[in-house]
Amino acid sequence: MITRLLQAGIMGAWATFFTWLFAVEQPTLARLLHPRLWWLVLAGAVVLLIFLGVALRRIKMPTAQPLRWSWPAYLILLVPLCFVGQMQSARFDSQTFRDRSPSAIETMATVQEQEIQQATPETPDIATPVEESFIQIAQDPQRHVGRRVELLCQALPDTRLPDDQFICYRFRINCCAADAQPVFIFVNRQGSPPPAKDAWMRVKGRLSPHTVNGLTFALIQAESLQSEAEPSFPFIF
Questions:
Q1: pTM for this structure?
Q2: DSSP secondary structure string, 77-122?
Q3: Which of 28, 61, 106, 217 has the fewest CB atoms within 10 Å, measured from its CB?
Q4: What are the residues whose beta carbons fall under 8 Å from the beta carbon of 122, sequence distance 6 or more?
Q5: Rounded CA gap, 231 and 184, in Å?
Q6: Side-chain-facing half-sphere of 18: CA atoms under 13 Å
Q7: CA 74 to CA 11: how far, in whole Å?
Q8: pLDDT digits 0-9 by tens, 118-156
């Protein structure tokens, strides 16, 4: 009976956690999972509640294995719940950026040694949507040359960059935080105060290409830099 109670307790704990995450703690869920997959959390809670009901109905039935042999496996199932507090405060930051984007670090190390080629042909001033454009601008800067853009991102100053430049970065996900990859754009702050590391900034300015070692990166000539609160969903996709 004790084994059945332990099984039911574990399923109840996980069902409660999933329900709480979906119904109450959506800001935390937004840092873990793509919005189109949130239904999986709710579905998981429903499945666990069904199994909880089954376990309670079978509570007086004997188990095939004594508790003394199975309790370590049950305790292991509860270990992830011990990290709920850390999950709420955890953030992707510049250290995550460095760990997941070694190519950007190599670029930063050589940027001061290369001649920066910039071009800003006259084009109509077209406002670019903040969230939808970040990936396209970072991956195809030539297409957006000369356009005025407005982007929300985190700041990464680095001593290996010129004094007036910093990296503006976001993390792109396909499924969840586990597959998040950094996407970045260089920003020339043009006399504005340097931003704090990992601070969320709204950057407005005109885009020009930034060429290093034959590779072209996006560079924004910032006309304004404004501090922003962390968005409710920090990822792009």
A1: 0.78
A2: HHGGGGGHHHHHH----HHHHHHH-HHHHHHHHHGGGSPPP-----
A3: 61
A4: 146
A5: 17
A6: 18
A7: 10
A8: 444 444 455 554 444 788 888 888 887 888 888 999 999
